[in-house]
Design brief:
Elements lengths: L1 H34 L2 H17 L3 H14 L4 H13 L3 H15 L2 H20 L5 H13 L6 H14 L17 H17 L4 H8 L5 E5 L3 H13 L5 H26 L4 H6 L3 H11 L11 E4 L3 E7 L2 E6 L10 E6 L4 E2 L2 E2 L1 E7 L9 E10 L16 E10 L4 E10 L9
Helix pairs in contact: 2-3, 2-4, 3-4, 4-5, 5-6, 6-7, 6-8, 7-8, 7-9, 8-10, 9-10, 9-11, 10-11, 11-12
Protein name: Tetratricopeptide repeat protein
Pfam family, one: TPR_19
InterPro entries: TPR-like_helical_dom_sf
């Protein structure tokens, strides 16, 4: 009997042991499942990342935050943490990028506000350092695209545009580089967006207009972008920009002058120099010449030999408003040929000279020998007294000379000496 009771007791203990083992196995399984839950893994990485951030081990923290996002791409905390990590390393662009990526993924309002604040703080930093540029204006516009109701962006944008438009290199945004590269498309894209804002909300009018017509003493424009920029200026004019009228008047005058000289460029390029002989005594050419001499030329400015080129112009803000001149400086734009008008009072016995110069295209890197051509209608009898003591009228003649410049000096070679209408001496 005792043996039977002992056997039952042993069997009962065995069952209890098996049950206990099952409980332990179940508990271990639950623990294993818990530790392998995605959220648990994310929390582990976030905790690890926070520890690294405290220790300023930013690279290790970055790896932990990145690992957390690989587990759960919707973790707002991981995006914010990774952005903080980049910001702590001074990488604000990367911080803004990850916050924007997080907002697009999660639509979290917190991430959106953090993104906007990070972008604007970066722009403000550049404005304070006086290094604001086109990218900073674009950053402000990006914030507005993401958060149209952002109340902070307007003042930041205005300050940024104000600084950018007074910088010297900003006045050259519409001028192509000598190697043919250009910032104009990027400039025009930003201008379009600013104008779009201003046309919907007039509180952006000043920023848009200041960007279209920079607050500078000089504004350069490659004529290849003339029509595109003119359209932008016309939109600024519609917004009430006071500077637009003067700029558009300059563009109208430039088109008139360029059209007038176009046939002469064709003649010179074909080495048809005799055409200039008739050109420089036409009433219209003499009117242009006299307008420079008498300082009555509207919008187009110049001094002695006034250049006409086909590549670029520069707008000049004077006491009388906006004027322009053609760019001849080959460090700014390499002319494919230059025509120069004599705009200086130069009389021979009371007769004003009429002159034109032509400079063929050349390589600025190999300037010498440099060749220019000059055609002058002038008085060849400077004394006005004949050898037989008779009175004479002015003896006008055409002189065509080739000028050659070398590093050592210059020389002139007479090519033609054409007769004029008063070539022969006449008695009074």
């Amino acid at each position: 009997m005792w043996k039977k009771r002992g056997k039952k007791l042993a069997q009962k203990r065995k069952k209890i042991g098996i049950a206990a083992a099952a409980v332990i196995v179940a508990a271990a399984g639950s623990t294993l499942i818990y530790h392998n839950l995605p959220q648990t893994k994310v929390e582990k990485q976030l905790t690890l990342a926070a520890k690294y951030m405290t220790e300023m081990n930013y690279l290790e923290a970055q790896e932990a935050y990145t690992e957390a996002l690989s587990i759960d791409e919707g973790s707002v905390r991981a995006y914010r943490g990774l952005a903080d990590d980049y910001a702590a390393q001074g990488q604000l662009d990367e911080a803004a990028e990850i916050l924007h990526q997080g907002y697009e993924t999660t639509q979290s309002e917190i991430l959106l506000q953090n993104y906007c604040a990070t972008v604007l703080n970066s722009v403000v930093e550049h404005v304070n350092e006086k290094t604001a540029g086109l990218d900073d204006i674009r950053s402000c516009l990006t914030v507005l695209e993401s958060d149209p109701d952002n109340e902070s962006v307007r003042s930041v944008l205005e300050n940024c545009v104000q600084q950018v438009t007074v910088q010297e290199d900003t006045a050259s945004l519409m001028l192509d580089e000598l190697d043919g590269t250009s910032d104009f498309d990027e400039y025009a894209d930003v201008a379009e967006k600013l104008l779009g804002l201003a046309e919907k909300d007039n509180s952006y009018q000043e920023a848009a207009c200041s960007f279209i017509i920079p607050k500078a003493q000089k504004i350069y424009l490659s004529l290849s972008h003339r029509d595109s920029w003119k359209e932008l200026v016309e939109r600024a004019q519609a917004l009430g920009d006071a500077e637009a009228d003067g700029i558009l008047a300059c563009l109208s005058k430039q088109q008139e002058i360029s059209d007038y000289f176009a046939p002469m460029f064709e003649a010179f390029e074909q080495e048809d120099y005799k055409t200039a002989r008739n050109f420089i005594v036409t009433d219209q050419y003499k009117a242009i010449r006299d307008a420079f001499i008498n300082r009555t030329m509207e919008y187009w400015t110049g001094n002695t030999y006034v250049p006409v080129t086909k590549e670029a112009i520069v707008f000049l803000l004077t006491d009388d408003g906006w004027k322009f001149s053609f760019v001849e400086d080959d460090s700014l734009a390499q002319p494919s040929g230059t025509i120069r008008v004599l705009g200086q009072k130069m009389e021979d016995l009371g007769v004003q000279r009429s002159s034109i110069e032509y400079v063929p295209a050349y390589d600025p890197a190999a300037y010498y020998p440099h060749t220019e051509y000059e055609i002058v209608y002038w008085n060849t009898m400077v004394s006005g007294i004949a050898t037989d003591n008779t009175n004479v009228v002015s003896r006008m003649n055409y002189r065509f000379a080739k000028k050659t410049y070398t590093a050592e000096g210059s020389s002139a070679e007479m090519i033609y000496d054409w007769g004029g209408e008063n070539e022969k001496r006449q008695k009074e």
